[in-house]
Design brief:
The chain has one domain. Helix content is 51%, strand content 11%. It has a three-stranded mixed beta sheet with strand order 2-1-3. The longest helix has 18 residues. The chain is globular and about 30 Å long.
Length: 89
């Protein structure tokens, strides 16, 4: 399978966010794509696009920390506790 490159991270995040899924860094863990937060109808509507995004960017497990760091840098993280952010850095 194709592997995502680090320079593709901003585009990947943008593409996921444009589907309505909240892509968020989870401090100390990695990141999540909030497709489970969508209603069943919303999920069915965006499911084909999520599949396209997955195929476009490919495997990304090797970039787990880099994606999480990028999300943190643009303010997409949980929890929003500033002390935890300082601990992460």
């Amino acid at each position: 399978m194709k592997k995502m490159t680090e320079d593709q991270i901003p585009d990947f995040v943008r593409d996921i966010a444009e589907t309505g899924c909240d892509i968020t860094a989870v401090l100390g863990t990695g990141y999540v794509i909030g497709d489970a937060d969508l209603s069943p109808d919303e999920y069915e509507r965006v499911r084909p696009r999520l599949k396209e995004i997955n195929e476009l960017y490919g495997e990304r497990d090797h970039l787990l920390h880099e994606i999480a760091d990028y999300l943190l840098s643009i303010g997409r993280y949980y929890p929003k506790d500033r002390d935890l952010i300082r601990l992460r850095n």
